[in-house]
Amino acid sequence: MTNYLDTLTHRGWVKFDDVFSTQLVDEILDEYLTNEHHFVNIQNQKGIAHLVENATHHSFVICRKMLTLLENPILGKFLTEYFNGAYILNTMGVSRITKVNKTYTQNIHRDIRSFSGSNKLWLNAIILLSDSTEENGATWMLEGSQNFPNKPKEKEFFDNAIRATGKKGDVIFFDGNMWHAAGKNLTETDRYIITPFFQNLTSNNN
Ligand SMILES: O=C(O)CCC(=O)C(=O)O
């Protein structure tokens, strides 16, 4: 795992190839699409549906098959080594990038509420439920920006960010401080990911 941890430290992100089978990923997406309306109903009731279009949070509460993704021993070992011990799942949601509608994750952002510096407080994961390409919305990542307390300007971001492409079933981890954005989908086929976010149990045990 040392190589993966080193890559994560230096680049801010790292990818594990072929972690999940196409069959499992398809079953999980299928279960999600069958149940998505429950989440959208709640978003509508709360008056926030227009803010979170194409995204649902805590999706595993209804879509139980998603939880099997957390049982993967390789990912478990990596997370334990990264956090130097126990960790918790903070949230785990599904997002879709389409050609027609904007998803809020396409804005430059980071997911941690405040900059935590080199303290290993928060680690984001992206589980690819679709192949992820430059054409269909692969994540823009500004390598090194895990060390930036402040949001980079749009030009600085897009001039320097790289695309984290991958195949269905791959898993990408990136530092919670990293500035990133989902790309545009120029294709006719929607792109799906699951984003589990993990957190250290304490903020100072590294
Ligand atoms: O769709 C992506 O590649 C990025 C997802 C993202 O930025 C997020 O969930 O915070």
Automatic annotation (TrEMBL):
InterPro entries: Phytyl_CoA_dOase-like. Pfam families: PhyH (PF05721). It comes from the Bacteria. Keywords: Dioxygenase, Oxidoreductase. One of its GO terms (molecular function) is dioxygenase activity. Signal peptide: none annotated. PANTHER family: IRON_ALPHA-KETOGLUTARATE-DEPENDENT DIOXYGENASE ASQJ (PTHR20883:SF41), PHYTANOYL-COA DIOXYGENASE DOMAIN CONTAINING 1 (PTHR20883). This is Phytanoyl-CoA dioxygenase family protein. It comes from Psychrosphaera aquimarina. The lineage of its organism: Bacteria, Pseudomonadati, Pseudomonadota, Gammaproteobacteria, Alteromonadales.
